[in-house]
Amino acid sequence: MAADPPVLTLKNAAVGFGGTPLFTGAELSVTPGMRACLVGRNGTGKSTILKLLAGLLEPDDGDLYVQPGLTVGYLPQDVPLPDDMLIADFVAQMGAELGMSSDTAPRHAVDAALSRVDIDGTRNVDSLSGGESRRVAIAGALLGDPDVLLLDEPTNHLDLPTIEWLERELVDRRKTLITISHDRAFLETITTDTFWLHRGSLRHNAEGYGKFEAWTEQVADAEVRAAQRLDQKLKAEARWLERGVTARRRRNQGRLTRLEQMRSQRKALLTGQDLVQLEADAGPISSRLVVECENLCKSFGDDVIIDNFSTRILRGDRVGLVGPNGAGKTTLLKLLIGELEKDSGRLRRAKNTALAFFDQTREQLDPNDTLWQTLAPQGGDSINVRGTQRHVVAYLRDFLFDEKQARAPVATLSGGERNRLLLAKILAQTSNLLVLDEPTNDLDADTLDVLLDMLDSYEGTVLLVSHDRDFLDRVVNSTIAVEGGGHVMEYPGGYSDYLRQRKRVEKASAKPTKKPGNGKPARTTADALKKMTFKEEHELGVLPDRIKALENAKAELEKALSDPDLFARDAAAYETAANKLAEVETAIASAEDRWLELEARRESLDAAR
């Protein structure tokens, strides 16, 4: 069967904006049903290609073919919001700017597009949050159900439920699209093809993003072999390319091994398993404590944000915070770092905390400063990067900036380049607690790899708020899920681990439905509400293992204290062990009381059914 003809084609396209071309000879064909991603480093021209396809730019050279009658929906990376306008009017205006007349975008079409993103069109744009603004922009791109969608960073500022909805929307409706995104999990889910903008040329692979890394390594290997066939001068470059390919593989493997070790340690801490071994490996937990909270509560009026949440974060932990927008992630983060007062519960933080904060609004960057001035505001040509002196230009190269950009103003940078610069600035600071609020927005895959390397070598503790599932899986050893209504629960591992554990707990807590005709009345809504919460079910399940681990710890401590020579040999060690024994005995009593309370509640609920 013959393949469908392309509906949108770039031929031999070049764009340079009057200077050195961003790319030349670009060839791109979009066929019906294709869901392709466009990947490449920030600043190489990805957004420019989308604007060419949308008809918003003319190429310096080459041609654009658009099938007659084809409709195109375009989502820019940033959509400026007007002052004092109804959301519905704004979405209709977006459609008009893409060449749609009022006849092709009537009010019912606007309302239909807004209903798909769950936004009320009668609201004012001034009332929109960051995530809602992005959903409105997506509604503008979906207006009139276009034949082809061009999406530039569609998942920016979206929470995980909305990202998952968008994935289903694009796949189930079999949309034809080209998208730029830093979200690897999103790309792996939706894409059938990959376009790679690299070194000024555009390559195509007829496989989705899941095969991208293997494909790029094949390309790099081919470049190595090609360079080796040339003269001696280029053999050095061949060796450099080869080292780059193998070094990336080794770094990824090393990071994975260390992360699995950290996740095992975090699981031991959360469940109480191997508690003594955990302290033997890394020292007493009390000396490594960064943040500890017990039964933490926070409300705003009648709105419960955090309800009885407990955790203990140690030096070196990488903790991710996930949940829908508005559920309370930022509130919890501010509580943990001391920017907000708790309502009740116990909360303590290490006294020697040095905080570095990455804010997704990029307010720490002055657009009039150069990149050099941003990193070295006091002048000079070197900066201190966490105790090591580095030349400004060399440090900028670490974050994939060209030497020529060092003297350029921040205002000339793309959104992804600004995020990259802010990360460079934040990671240079002397700190032992790093707080990252959506650090991956607008970042390309190469910059994400740089950030992964930097975090891997960072010796302090990391708190990470992110909706990027793949990044969470690669970085964190524990995930705190803030799910609204005060419900907060911590799970060892990354985002995928959180999903698996949550499904297991939900499955274990699910009760079989009574068959009709058994003589028992159906449960009413009020009855259904009288059940143990998800948090209580989980707690009841893990308490026996925790009590057992604490009993083992108690036995080990009692054995150590039974040594008659311990006090004379090491009085400090004796005192530490005695204090620890008292703590463990208190913890055992508390855990047993809690288990009895929950078990009694479960039995009474079962008897009432």
Q: What is the fold's blueprint, element by element?
A:
Blueprint (H helix, E strand, L loop, with lengths): L7 E8 L7 E8 L4 E5 L6 H8 L7 E6 L5 E4 L11 H11 L9 H10 L13 H13 L5 E5 L7 H13 L3 E5 L3 H7 L2 E6 L2 E5 L6 H17 L6 H37 L3 H8 L6 E12 L2 E12 L3 E5 L6 H9 L6 E6 L5 E4 L12 H5 L6 E4 L2 E4 H7 L16 H14 L4 E5 L7 H13 L3 E5 L3 H7 L2 E5 L5 E5 L2 H15 L15 H5 L4 H28 L4 H4 L1 H38 L1
Parallel strand pairs: 3-7, 3-8, 5-6, 6-7, 12-18, 12-19, 14-17, 17-18
Antiparallel strand pairs: 1-2, 1-4, 8-9, 10-11, 10-13, 15-16, 19-20
Helix pairs in contact: 2-3, 2-4, 3-4, 7-8, 18-20
Features:
4 domains, Rossmann fold, 6-stranded mixed beta sheet, 609 residues
CATH topology of the largest domain: Rossmann fold
First and last CA, distance:
60 Å
Q: Give the CATH superfamily of the largest domain.
A: P-loop containing nucleotide triphosphate hydrolases
Task: Report the average pLDDT across residues.
Answer: 80
Strand order of the largest sheet: 5-6-7-3-8-9
Number of helices: 20
What is the C-alpha radius of gyration, as a whole number of Å? 28 Å
State the low-pLDDT regions, or none. Answer: 100-104, 237-243, 273-285, 513-529
* Estimated share of beta-strand residues: 15-25%
> Considering DSSP H and I runs of 4 or more, what fraction of the residues is helical?
40-55%
CATH class of the largest domain: Alpha Beta
CATH architecture of the largest domain: 3-Layer(aba) Sandwich
Helix/strand-derived class? alpha/beta
Q: Please describe the biggest sheet, giving its number of strands, its sense, and whether it closes into a barrel.
A: 6 strands, mixed
In total, how many beta strands?
Answer: 20
**Whole-number total of structural domains:** 4
Q: Choose one word for the global shape.
A: globular
